[in-house]
């Protein structure tokens, strides 16, 4: 039966495919695709895990059989019997085999997927006693997962190395249907793992439009919906799903008529992309001759390729923290970081690359596990530059790596979340220390321009201080909106109040642009507003000439630029900023 779940639109377009339900497990589980020649080894890993847990339970049974009823109550023995029975249930292992063999999931992913399928069957049971056995099933699956965690995969390479490109998977007959992910939540680190994988779209139960998970989805340019409450409970493994990323809707089990309608919409989208692609080599100049710089936001060095393909004039924001995520405590050292930054710099072939020092914290934990120790108000806590200043050793290492990469092409160094003059002073001193360090050791390095993000209202309100110390500024509207309006950008419950067009936000953005222009300092916007075509004319009218966004949005923004006449937009833009309800003046 067809039904739909509504959420928040994140990344445009239509995806049609089969559901891959990402079970949320209390054990931190890696998800990646394996190669066909690893199938047998992965199945063997699960079997070994199961056998080990069976052995463990048998040993326990033996121990308690020698105890009296007081020390080992009868219920305990009965429980162990149930666990053994569940472990030996063929449906568990045959299902896991199916996900490994037919879908090429790694062993842990296959096990949690099958656990999900069986849990649903338990949920539907009439008998309350049987229904409650679901908890036992979860416990035994967790024991197997924990056992497997202690035993590395025989093909023990990092997951990234095992990731297969979309091309490879499309060429593989065993994976011929597009797959869409449906999950309760996905961390930015999870998203990164999926970046080069097969998924055609995704839906999550929670999350806001500007959470980092949503931002990575947008950078992948696949249709996505977040905050679709109940989606992961309502859809089933392998259901046919339509994701309408423009409307923020997930349709489950669509009828043939609905499928045909969305198939048409999907083709229309592809045609539109084809039309935009023709603008790739067209210079971004407005009707009145104003040159506009369209830059790319990237998360990994290899994204430079997509940036170049979209015709980006450079990288306006390299979110370096993604290099640090999902590393389970093994953070990249100076050499590894240097190689990564260098790859991005060389990848951009002489165009400038703006590397932001790591902005870890809030909704970007280093590992999934780190979320457990989350602070009460992580977005207001030890995040970004605050974390870097609290750990100068790590910060200096990153600064040195960035300066070394600057020997290979133009590099700008961007500092996130500054608000205090004292933080600026400390940061500048550490930048100087890093430079002297390299000089003393005779390590080749290059000059960097220094920039600050304006993403805390306090920074926008003391702009003079920033203008005095930095070569350029970059407005991070995602956080500027969050902190101006006191709205958690990752919380779907308040997403309706997260308003880029709130007059207070617009005033801070307009003032920052105006002051930078008056002083001849370069300024860009690198938050999601820069890639939102509905505000391109407004930002141009406010004097902005540099926009940094996901590569996938560059051509659509360029189209707006080519149609704009900034002379005519200026007074209108001023009116919009002064209005009580700016959105009303912006048009449809
Ligand atoms: C921003 O806050 O607008 C920004 C670009 O940084 P991030 O989204 O990574 O916080
Ligand atoms: Mg930010």
Automatic annotation (TrEMBL):
<dbReference type="InterPro" id="IPR036637">
    <property type="entry name" value="Phosphohistidine_dom_sf"/>
</dbReference>
<dbReference type="Pfam" id="PF05524">
    <property type="entry name" value="PEP-utilisers_N"/>
</dbReference>
<dbReference type="InterPro" id="IPR000121">
    <property type="entry name" value="PEP_util_C"/>
</dbReference>
<feature type="active site" description="Tele-phosphohistidine intermediate">
    <location>
        <position position="212"/>
    </location>
</feature>
<keyword id="KW-0460">Magnesium</keyword>
<dbReference type="InterPro" id="IPR008731">
    <property type="entry name" value="PTS_EIN"/>
</dbReference>
<feature type="binding site">
    <location>
        <begin position="478"/>
        <end position="479"/>
    </location>
    <ligand>
        <name>phosphoenolpyruvate</name>
    </ligand>
</feature>
<keyword id="KW-0808">Transferase</keyword>
<feature type="domain" description="Phosphotransferase system enzyme I N-terminal">
    <location>
        <begin position="6"/>
        <end position="133"/>
    </location>
</feature>
<keyword id="KW-0963">Cytoplasm</keyword>
<keyword id="KW-0670">Pyruvate</keyword>
<dbReference type="InterPro" id="IPR024692">
    <property type="entry name" value="PTS_EI"/>
</dbReference>
<dbReference type="InterPro" id="IPR006318">
    <property type="entry name" value="PTS_EI-like"/>
</dbReference>
<keyword id="KW-0418">Kinase</keyword>
<dbReference type="Pfam" id="PF00391">
    <property type="entry name" value="PEP-utilizers"/>
</dbReference>
<keyword id="KW-0479">Metal-binding</keyword>
<dbReference type="InterPro" id="IPR023151">
    <property type="entry name" value="PEP_util_CS"/>
</dbReference>
<feature type="domain" description="PEP-utilising enzyme C-terminal">
    <location>
        <begin position="276"/>
        <end position="564"/>
    </location>
</feature>
<keyword id="KW-0813">Transport</keyword>
<comment type="similarity">
    <text>Belongs to the PEP-utilizing enzyme family.</text>
</comment>
<dbReference type="InterPro" id="IPR036618">
    <property type="entry name" value="PtsI_HPr-bd_sf"/>
</dbReference>
<feature type="domain" description="PEP-utilising enzyme mobile">
    <location>
        <begin position="179"/>
        <end position="248"/>
    </location>
</feature>
<feature type="binding site">
    <location>
        <position position="489"/>
    </location>
    <ligand>
        <name>phosphoenolpyruvate</name>
    </ligand>
</feature>
<dbReference type="GO" id="GO:0008965">
    <property type="term" value="F:phosphoenolpyruvate-protein phosphotransferase activity"/>
</dbReference>
<dbReference type="Pfam" id="PF02896">
    <property type="entry name" value="PEP-utilizers_C"/>
</dbReference>
<protein>
    <recommendedName>
        <fullName>Phosphoenolpyruvate-protein phosphotransferase</fullName>
        <ecNumber>2.7.3.9</ecNumber>
    </recommendedName>
</protein>
<feature type="binding site">
    <location>
        <position position="479"/>
    </location>
    <ligand>
        <name>Mg(2+)</name>
    </ligand>
</feature>
<keyword id="KW-0598">Phosphotransferase system</keyword>
<feature type="binding site">
    <location>
        <position position="455"/>
    </location>
    <ligand>
        <name>Mg(2+)</name>
    </ligand>
</feature>
<dbReference type="GO" id="GO:0009401">
    <property type="term" value="P:phosphoenolpyruvate-dependent sugar phosphotransferase system"/>
</dbReference>
<feature type="active site" description="Proton donor">
    <location>
        <position position="526"/>
    </location>
</feature>
<dbReference type="GO" id="GO:0005737">
    <property type="term" value="C:cytoplasm"/>
</dbReference>
<dbReference type="InterPro" id="IPR015813">
    <property type="entry name" value="Pyrv/PenolPyrv_kinase-like_dom"/>
</dbReference>
<dbReference type="InterPro" id="IPR040442">
    <property type="entry name" value="Pyrv_kinase-like_dom_sf"/>
</dbReference>
<dbReference type="InterPro" id="IPR008279">
    <property type="entry name" value="PEP-util_enz_mobile_dom"/>
</dbReference>
<dbReference type="InterPro" id="IPR050499">
    <property type="entry name" value="PEP-utilizing_PTS_enzyme"/>
</dbReference>
<dbReference type="InterPro" id="IPR018274">
    <property type="entry name" value="PEP_util_AS"/>
</dbReference>
<feature type="binding site">
    <location>
        <position position="319"/>
    </location>
    <ligand>
        <name>phosphoenolpyruvate</name>
    </ligand>
</feature>
<feature type="binding site">
    <location>
        <position position="356"/>
    </location>
    <ligand>
        <name>phosphoenolpyruvate</name>
    </ligand>
</feature>
<keyword id="KW-0762">Sugar transport</keyword>
<dbReference type="GO" id="GO:0016301">
    <property type="term" value="F:kinase activity"/>
</dbReference>
<comment type="function">
    <text>General (non sugar-specific) component of the phosphoenolpyruvate-dependent sugar phosphotransferase system (sugar PTS). This major carbohydrate active-transport system catalyzes the phosphorylation of incoming sugar substrates concomitantly with their translocation across the cell membrane. Enzyme I transfers the phosphoryl group from phosphoenolpyruvate (PEP) to the phosphoryl carrier protein (HPr).</text>
</comment>
